[in-house]
Amino acid sequence: MSLLRVPAAVLAALSLVFTLPAGCDDGTTADTNEDNTGAGGKADSGWVGADTFEAGGTVLSLVRHPAEGEWRELATDPDVQLQLIDAQLKFVKTTAEANGWRFNQLADTVEIADVNVTDDGTVEILYEAVVDFLGRLEGRDGVPAFDDLTNTAFAALVPLDPINVAYSTMGDCSDTEKYPISDKNFHYYFAPEAEDCELETTTADVRVTEVFEREIVWPEYDRLLGKLEGYDEPGFTAALVPNVGDSDPYSRFNVHREMLERNLGLSGVTAADDSYVRFEWIEGGVAMIIDLYDPTLVRWDFARQFRERLGEYTLVHYNGHSSYGTKHLLDEPESFTDTYQIIMLHSCQSYAYYTRQVFRAKATDEDPSGFDLADVVATGKSSYPSGAPPTLSYLLEHLMEGMVAVNNGKPEDAPDWISIVEGMSASTWGDIMYGVAGVRSNGWKP
């Protein structure tokens, strides 16, 4: 293993550069060493969890890559710089978990301290990223005080250049023999201390700096009670978009249909083109229109079809693999509506992989955090396909309960997000860390 350490003097100077608050933009560029690479407007993901709390922090590091091909604008383009920094940040994962934290692999904001271009065209970027973590709640005692936390500062070895690592090098620097190593999962099994690892690494200085409150907040029920075309009752539309099953292509589709029929007592009608089955749920003067999509009809073009659903529905539910965060489901901002949505991602570690993609897509000039237009139900650890139907059933039942309560003048009876995610967690098995992101600043209250 070849290790490059950022000198202490450089890190000290770097800490002096970072005087702007997260999300602030003074209009300067990377050439002035004070660029604010836009990745959101808050220093957290607005998370409340069934059995977790969220903490905020920073990562100080150096990243390097040649300015060529798709990276040719690396020295000057903040979006390209953010892409490279994100590629390095995800390698903090294994060290963070060893220190008791689940790490969100996408930065919230990034401050560029220095950009240096070497004689051979390689770009070196010294940066600080604002990041967030999930910690485990102990019992029912609430969020721990910051002073009671352990492992709030640690060093993580990360690749100096995280792009285009040779396959043989990835194999030498990984700790699994069960799964084939590739670009998409190298960070997941990254083991830079391995005896044969010769990858050039650098030390990322990781610090947990604050603990966020686990506040009682609610879904935006007033926005869920929208006008539905063709219905007298207010409500919203939901798209359930399971992926094909691992052994039986229909398995995820079938268990969701069974849940809607058995748990919720609904009857479905197949669309004229067979692409989905529609379930109409009308209760207490409100409506929920649920379309369950058949993944076998789009299995070779699933991602595009999923993104189309993002532009059509208020609630969109995904059940399938996360593929280590490489799914092209949520990284196209133009695919989303410009209104409030609930996105549920029942896939492995979707908090770390995908919540930030939603908020980057939903961000506006008025709301750079993206929180106002999205609540994202996600998982902190690996999930199982069998957990999707009961957790989704619990979510839909309690969103309906809340809408009915609000519509009938009893808003105090509407379930809050913590109650909902706690019930979701209790409805199935496994240590999944269910929670919902983007909600701590929600505006609706009983």
Q: How is this structure best summarized?
A:
The protein is an alpha/beta fold. It has ten helices and 17 strands.
Keywords:
single chain; 446 residues; alpha/beta; eight-stranded mixed beta sheet; 17 strands; globular; disordered N terminus
Q: Please give the alpha-carbon distance between the first and last residues.
A: 57 Å
Note the beta-strand portion: 25-35%
Structural class: alpha/beta
Quantity of strands, as a count: 17
Helix content: 10-25%
**Dominant shape:** globular
Query: Can you give the mean pLDDT?
Result: 91
**Could you describe the largest sheet, including whether it forms a barrel?**
9 strands, mixed
Counted by DSSP, the helix tally is 10
Q: If strands are numbered along the chain, what order do they take across the biggest sheet?
A: 3-17-16-15-14-10-13-12-11
Taking all Cα atoms into account, the compactness measure Rg is 22 Å
Low-confidence stretches: 2-43
Instruction: Tell me the series of helices and strands, N- to C-terminal.
Output: EHEEEHHEEEEHEHEHEEEHEEHEHHE
Explained architecture:
With 446 residues, the chain is α/β, with parallel strands linked by helices. The protein is 23% helix and 26% strand. It contains 10 helices and 17 strands. Strands 3-17-16-15-14-10-13-12-11 form a 9-stranded mixed β-sheet, sandwiched between helices. Strands 1, 2, 4, 5, 6, 7, 8 and 9 form an 8-stranded mixed β-sheet that branches. Strand 15 (341-346), helix 8 and strand 16 (374-379) form a beta-alpha-beta unit. Helix 6 runs parallel beside helix 9 (388-407). It is globular, with a radius of gyration of 22 Å.
